[in-house]
Amino acid sequence: MDNIETRFTIGNLLVTFGLSYILSHFIPDVSFTLTFLGLFLLIEGIFYSVKKVLLKEKDLASYLSMLFIGISFVLFALHILQYSFLMLITSIIISIGLALLISGGIFKYSSKEIISGLTLLGIGIILLIPSFFHVSEKFYNYIRIFGFGGLFIILGIVIMLPKRGGKTE
């Protein structure tokens, strides 16, 4: 095992397995699986994100996604966020959107990644509205219909607009 990435990943598996085992027996109602997945993705995301930044590589979105998904899994495991399938999917969508926004806005300067990130964040926020705000079902349906429709309209217009040089293919 001369490759540092392989050694780190195997070591990370063992460390997160041990931490998850201890936490699941020490703290009541802590899910071993969510803790293990969350800590593993969190540590891997930090390692590879820092590595990419230090090597001045610009493709960071997938590693930042791992980091944010790991954080959300840890929040589910510790019952800071209430676990449900909808919340899980929403947290993954928001994590990917946030990673694309950070990667495209800070490291890559890519308008395509920024727009994709904002779109995913918008979808995630629309899905979170009934969980955090007490709104009537009728009002939420209006927000959902017009929100999703508006996001698709904006995304379609952005795709139809010509690129910076004004050339269309």
**Tally of contiguous helical segments:** 6
Kindly give the count of domains. 1
User: What general form does the structure show?
Assistant: flat
The span between the termini is: 48 Å
Give, in order, the helices and strands. Answer: HHHHHH
Residue windows where pLDDT falls under 50 for at least 5 positions: none
Could you state the oligomeric state of the chains shown? single chain
Q: Over the alpha carbons, how many angstroms does the gyration radius reach?
A: 19 Å
What is the share of helical residues?
Answer: over 70%
Calculate the mean pLDDT score and round it: 84
Strand content: under 5%
The major pleated sheet works out as: none
Structural class: mainly alpha
Number of strands: 0
